[in-house]
């Protein structure tokens, strides 16, 4: 799946004052590539991937999935697209407290009308949580919850994966586990987009972009109206 953003902008309104999260961002994400988006806190990068995933609307421009403008989809169709085709690793804790680790991982597949227990167990092993399959989220550390979120995002074998600071709270060994899994997903044909401050992620990237003051700067020259400069050789 190819994701194309054409001159998208997001503006929030606080007490009648307009605050631009980012403006006129144009970028394309190809299947089989892992893309990093870096930048300071408040630069707009989390808002950008939330818009790209359809969680918040863009005020201007278009977001296309294989040529289809997602702003034209109704709630049911957009939810179906996210459930079937998009995996999302959020920045905060998002596990459901009344479900076990295994049940949390299986939740997206259950919502899609499937029950892939064998693959869920495989993902548990891949992120080092196999011994915690029957534990509950309040029994897990912050790092274990991050790994749970990563496994859950992959259960439906999505063609697009967004990850917001996926190595937060992880030590070097577990960061490598998560980044390797995401790289493997890209090599298997997914488009993987990661927001991160973690410099260890750079070596996994096919492309790197930087958010600065609501503008995207990077090594993509596809669109003439994108400010571009190489960040990696």
Output the CATH homologous superfamily of the domain at 3-93 and 157-218: P-loop containing nucleotide triphosphate hydrolases
Radius of gyration: 17 Å
State the major sheet. Answer: 6 strands, mixed
Kindly identify the CATH topology of the domain at 3-93 and 157-218: Rossmann fold
Q: In the CATH hierarchy, what is the class of the domain at 3-93 and 157-218? A: Alpha Beta
Pattern of helices and strands? EEEHEEHEHHHEHEEE
What value does the average pLDDT take? 89
Q: What's the arrangement of strands in the largest beta sheet?
A: 6-7-8-3-9-10
**Beta-strand percent range:** 25-35%
The tally of strands reads 10
Q: Tally the helices: what do you get?
A: 6
- Overall geometry comes to globular
Q: What low-confidence regions span 5 or more consecutive residues with pLDDT below 50? A: 220-233
State the share of residues found in helices, binned by percent.
25-40%
Counting helices, strands and paired strands, the structural category is alpha/beta
